[in-house]
Amino acid sequence: MPENLRLLARKLGIATEFCDAGLCKKNYGVSDATLRLIASKLGYPCGTEKEAAASVERFDDRRYTEVLAPIYVCREDNVTFDIVLSAEQQIGKVTVLDANNACQELKIEQNDNLEERTIDNVRLCKIQYAVITPLTPGYYKINVRIGNKIYKSKLAVAPQYCYQAVEAGRRLWGYAVQLYAVRSKHNWGVGDFTDLAELARICARCGAGIIGLNPLNVLCHDFPENASPYQSISRLFLNPIYIDVEQVPEFSAADKQLIEGLLADIRAGELVQYNKVYPLKVKMLEKCYKRFCEQPEHGRLEAFRQFCREQGEELDKLALFQTLYESESPKVWGGWKAWPQQYLSPQASGIVDFAEAHAERIGFFKFMQFEAARQFAEAKKVVDELGLEIGFYRDLAVGVGKDSAELWGNSGMFIPDVGAGAPPDAFFPCGQKWGLGAFSPQMLKEMGYEPLIKILRANMKNAGALRIDHVMSLMRLFLIPDNMDEGTYVSYDFADMLNIVALESHLNKCMIVGESIGNVPDGFIDALCSRNIYSLSILWAERADAGWGGFFAPYDYPANAFVSVGTHDMAPLKMWWFGYDIELASSLGMIGCEEDKRNAYHKRETDRGLLLSALDAAGVWPEDRPRQGNYIYGEGYPEGIEEAVHRFVARSSCPVVLVQLEDFLHVQKQQNLPGTDRDKYPNWRLRLPVALEDLESDPAFVRNVAAIKKER
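Given the sequence above, the corresponding structure tokens read:
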């Protein structure tokens, strides 16, 4: 590998080699072509050694081109900033403005470290200062006087720890729910915010304190079958499909009568019919919006205006993007990048005229966000009234779809022509190409982390805890060029990212949980733990010998984790027991040959025996349903095993246990089969078999709740 290319990659945080997370660790070298492409997409061309050398020099010079950095992110126990001065300059008074614009002069002290660089024959010094004046966690505007000039920057002061909602020693439990999957007698074939409020009431009656939710972010309006909650068009706003249309004040009983027959069809069946339910909701909401606009001045209209003012430019961009997409998708194929030149960004030449011509439609898309936010807030009020200790536990997706409002609205923030994915690991030995947009590390810092801050705040809204999907992305993200299969890791400023997360957690009073299944760097979990960020633990991963040995006893589980039996990407307990997931993977060509399939079944038989032994050792079988045998294939499903398994994980020292209703209710299909689209498997569509109104009288539900409450 050419030396300047290697040096540039190191400075940009592009890994020249990496190790996978497979059962047998394998090291990978990264090709020069991949390094050159990713470096160039980060803004540093390196097609030749001379070009790479020039990029290295430009990278080294960049901090010396400005007196102050765009932002300084620090912990409250070590607040520092650096400043670039020429030899004849001296620093003067330093002041900060807090969030309330209160001004305070800072006492500072120069640190010993001093760096120098000569640019255009001018010797420049970069000097670091420590802030002696105590500053409470928050965001500040920092002003530094040098001579007769004042230079400005931002200062983010983070607490040492993320917010802690659970008192030491408390052992809570609750449900992990795919909201779209919730079945009720009132909803329109897809779970909604009214169902969410009812779930909170069920939690309170059961003694549960948390409801884990899939990402609730807005998806593609024009293609409702693109239903993955992890492929949103904006992580700043909600999916209108969760609006309970019957609770919109402008909806009428006459509207309901006109669609009763259609509702009966949509409510039938085991799958969410996105291509029917979403257009129906939109049609009814359009009627509501027309009435909303035709009414004389009223309180809801002013509340709507206030909502639009608060959401500001980001809501403007989302509604404009959705209106443009609706207009252009019948004409061109290929998403927003295939639109005419005058529409390719919010600043493009044709945008103002388009917005004026389509003001009513843009207003409608804003109205849907207004109503979704109102109904979600109403569900949160129920949580608060009931006193649930954590309440809603939201999920922040690792990235955003490339054909999205986020990329269209701020494409310079994202690395072009690459997508986020994952290298091989124990669960996905071929790796994964997610194709999600990824922030540029340099641009993220250049913008003072504002895009990240906005996303964190939006997803902490109404939440007592936030799950950060693929939390390793705070440190590094595996990027794969769009036109290649090979990828590599690109690093972010881990200290800055952790501090921003901790600060937003503190300001929003929201616990942080990091999903860390996959290729986890050494020491990473300890770094999260040191900041009071919880990890996620699952029964299937709490085993010896990288998943080949016995199941750990409950008292060996990590004390700083949220624990569950599985996830939405894994087979529910009954499906796992019978090996239906193996048969499914084989039928779809995801298992290479018959021998691999036989080996998978043999391992599953061994795993079943190991699970039975662990449950025996823990003594968690129901008294009226003791274990009856070894249950080799053909002997059926052990009566009471789901109760035993839930009691087993509930006995752990983990502060929070999350249970999936699919396990309670003996569901034999999984919500999502990674590596497939809906042409092969109905991902993100499976509805729960029992309606909310019948849940608390369902025998399996009653028995499983009782089993958990024996331990919690």
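The CA atoms of residues 161 and 503 lie 9 Å apart. Try to locate this feature in the token string yourself.
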